[in-house]
Sequence to fold (134 residues):
Amino acid sequence: MKFRLLDRITGYTPNYGISVVHAVSFEEILSVRRIGGVEAPRTFLPALAAQAAGFFYAAESDFRLWAYLSELEDLKINLSDPGDHWHLELKKNGSSGMLCTGSLCGSIKLEEVELATLYDPEERRAMFKALQRS
Fold:
């Protein structure tokens, strides 16, 4: 995933979880509805959860690891209108999973991968710091 849905990291607690936010733009909703119909925005929330989980795993491993979604369970998605914000809180759930609450509720299972095989670790470290801005 080379695009970024994650606009801001609103909280990070080591060994516990991460909270993130994404501002929904009018153009975003229109473009995905043209491509995939009314349900298309639902695909963005799991992608946002994946990016948040990736940053959590990176921060936990001193930017050696990244995570990707391998399984989604019992998801409940709350759609938004343009101008709204998607809020997600991901909490560690066992060794390879996280629980989501907020705009996307449910359980996700994750697989670890070496960060350097996907991205420049120092670029991700800098992005993590920038996304935590006050």
